[in-house]
Amino acid sequence: MKAYSHPSLDKVSLTAVMQALSDPCRVSIVQALLAEEERELACNEISLDVAKATRSHHFDVLREAGIIFTRCEGTRCMSSVRRKELNKRFPGLLKLISHEP
Amino acid sequence: MKAYSHPSLDKVSLTAVMQALSDPCRVSIVQALLAEEERELACNEISLDVAKATRSHHFDVLREAGIIFTRCEGTRCMSSVRRKELNKRFPGLLKLISHEP
DNA sequence: CAGTAATTTCGATCTTTTTCGAACTTTACA
DNA sequence: TGTAAAGTTCGAAAAAGATCGAAATTACTG
What are phi and psi of A88, to 5 degrees? Predict the structure, then answer.
C-alpha cells in the first residue's frame, strides 16, 4: 500500500519524541498499542474521535518520531510500539506513558 | 517583582510536560538547571541565543508545566527544577533529560 | 471485474506557538 | 534621586500544527 519509512532511533532527538507525545490523541494511540502485549493494531482498531485524515496524520507523526512501527497487511496498516529500541534510546519513556491514566 | 504561580503537580498532565519539553531551547534550560546540583540559576545565567522576551516566555512555559520553580531575589529571578515532585509524579523523566546530549 | 473497506493525499482553514522590539516595572546602589 | 540591570508585558508577525471533507489509492471479496 504505502512505503512507510522508519527513522533510526539514534537520529531521533529527545525534543522530537516529546513533540510527538505532546498531543493527547497521540498519547492515547501509544497507550492503546502498549496495552496490547505484543500484538499490533490496525489504525482503525483504536478508537479516537477525530476524522480519518487526522488519525492518519497522528500515526505519521508518531512514526516519524520513531515511536511506532507500521507495516501493511492488505488494506490495513498494523502498528506497534518500537519498544526495544525506545527502551534503549530513551530508557523510562514508555513506562512514563503507560503509567499515565 | 512578580508573583509567580506554580501549579500543583497532580494537576499537570503528561502531555503538558511533553509539550513544554518539546522545544530545544527549553530543554537546554532544564539541563543547565539540572547540572547545578542544588543551586538555583538566574534566567540570565543560562546562555541562550534568543531575545530577552523569548527567554522570559520559555521560563513561563516551563513554570506553567510544573517543571521549574522560580522565586524573586532583588531584580533577578532564581529558578530551579522541581526535582523531588517531578520524580514522584513522572519517575524517570528528569533522567531522560539529563542523560540526553 | 465491480464493490467495499482501510488508509492516504490534497487543499483549506483555524488555532497555537515562537519570536522579537519597544516600552514598562521593580529593585539596587552610587 | 537618577541610572542601570533584570525581567515582564504588549502587540504584531511569522511559522508550525491540528483538523476536516473530498477525492484518490490499494487490495480484498464476491
Answer: -80, -45
Q: Spell out a b/e string for A72-96, using b for 16 or more CB atoms within 10 Å of the CB, else e.
A: eeeeebbbbbbeebbeebbebbbeb
- List pLDDT tens digits, range A10-64: 999 999 999 999 999 999 999 999 998 777 999 889 989 999 999 999 999 999 9
Coil, helix or strand at residue B3: coil
Of B15, B24, B96, the CB nearest to A93: B96
Q: CB of B4 within 8 A of CB of B70? A: yes
Q: H/E element holding A81?
A: strand A76-81
User: What pTM was estimated for this model as a whole?
Assistant: 0.94
CB hemisphere CA count around A90 (13 angstroms): 25
* Cβ of residue A51 lies below 7 Å from strand C: no
The three cell numbers locating residue A69: 512501527
Query: A71 by DSSP, 3-state: which?
Result: strand
Q: Which residue of A has its CA nearest to B28?
A: A15
- In order of A38, A62, A67, the CA distances from A8 in angstroms are 21, 13, 10
CA distances (Å), B82 to each of A5, A24, B65, B79, in order? 38, 23, 11, 9
Q: What is the pLDDT of residues A68-90, one digit of tens each?
A: 999 999 999 999 999 999 999 99
